[in-house]
Amino acid sequence: MHRRLTFLRSSAALVGGWLLLLVAFGLYSATSHRQVLEQDVSESGRSLQRAISQRVAQHDAHLTSLSALGLAQAQPSQDFDLVARSILRFYPRIVAIDLIRLSPGEGASVVSSATSADGSTVDPLAVARAVEGLASGKAAYGPDGKPGHYRLMKRMNDTLAVSLDIDGAKLVEGEESPRWASLTLSTGQGLLLGMPARQLAASSLFARTVRFDAPIASATQPLRLSVGRQVTLPQLLPPLPFALFAAISLSGLALVRSLLRHRQDAALAREAAEAASRREALRQHETKLAHALRINSMGEMASGIAHELTQPLTALLSQSQAGRRIAAASGLQDTPIDSVLAANVLQAKRAADILVRLRAYVGKSALEAGVHDLGRHVADIVALSRIDLDRRGIVLDVELPETPALARIDPVEIEQVIHNLIRNAADAVEQADRVDGRVLVSLRPGSEENFEIVVADNGTGIPADILPRLFEPFFSSKPDGMGLGLSLCESIVERFDGSIVAENGVAGGAVFTVRLPAARTAERREEAAE
């Protein structure tokens, strides 16, 4: 080692090695910083692209709603005007909405018009020409007389068309664009929005522009987004880190021989690093232990609650059964009071079954499953949930097969799973504040080997960062959630050799799919296990 480091006695060799280190560090720093800046521009561009794509999709939805409203009314201009003004108020980028009457051979005229302060006067003949070759229900894009605006037009039928005047500059809202970004939004006819960077980079001879360029996802509005960032040499090679590295590397090369004489210090440093690693491993172990203790505490608490609830449920069941006997003895059999008591008996037994299964789950003991018709139990839990959803103004639809769907399950536990999924779907729809809230529960054959229970809604959907952790215990996206509902659902389904997956629907909302093996498949698996 001593002979290998002899060259450090030469000042020229020492400077040469130092310069090589500086060049290597400069290349690495410039490359890594450029990659970070390019990724930052790409992520910001894609975020803006998604936001603008959602907004232009809303334009198509407004056209469809206005067209349906116009076709459904005998005098479309009355209700059309009210809805149009509401759209202008809540969507300021839409600055004018016009209902045009098409009169072949006689020109075109405006039936109804709602315009904000930034809107422009529509040319009915231009709208008529734009939709002339379109079939009913098809939309067309066209320029507007006002700079930065464009029009989206739809042919309703042979005599009516609807037109939206859209301010392209308002497709990007507030502080959505980063301060460093220069942003342009354009069409084939020209520029809609040109936004310079609010935070200008220092001038440099080596300045380059990193750019993100992509079309907006829309079949009717051919927009293109471009996001650029000026990258300068100080950004690729920050002076302070470079100077620090230069000083440190020079000092390091000059002190190599001294460092070799301090091996003991290096050994102590290694021991400190190992000790830190051990402390980190101990911390992770303590975290896992605390998590296990929480689960154990939850199990003990659930077992205690189940035990405490058994007594009042037993009393409720006994009193209701006694009441039915008294009613029968008094000639009140099959009367409303007898029906109410019968319902109490049924629900008390159901609650008792749930507590039995809860205690079995906590105690890790499995209950005997049997072959049951999934369709009947899906129908029962839908009927039970419909009352709550009707009260919340949410439509609950169900699709069941005509033939029995036989599977080896515990019916009470499977009903718990479906009820939990329906309740979560209703919460998502309610959070979205939709007037057309809807939850669909369907049972269908997934293949010859299994059945699928699908619960879909048109609510808010599942954010991408939450989706991977959806079935994780104690993880919840709800402010008051405990994070146990979906985890319990997954445990129940997997106990019957099934699976549960979640995804976002193509048209929005969330879709949960429970797959359970058919009774014949489950029996073959049991025979193979034996």
TrEMBL record:
GO terms for molecular function: phosphorelay sensor kinase activity. Residues 304-520 form the Histidine kinase domain. SMART domains: HATPase_c. It catalyses: ATP + protein L-histidine = ADP + protein N-phospho-L-histidine. It is an enzyme of class 2 (transferase). Its EC number is 2.7.13.3. InterPro entries: HATPase_C_sf (IPR036890), HATPase_dom (IPR003594), His_kinase_dom (IPR005467), HisK_dim/P_sf (IPR036097), Sig_transdc_His_kin-like_C (IPR004358). PROSITE patterns: HIS_KIN (PS50109). SUPFAM superfamilies: ATPase domain of HSP90 chaperone/DNA topoisomerase II/histidine kinase, Homodimeric domain of signal transducing histidine kinase. This is histidine kinase. The lineage of its organism: Bacteria, Pseudomonadati, Pseudomonadota, Alphaproteobacteria, Hyphomicrobiales.
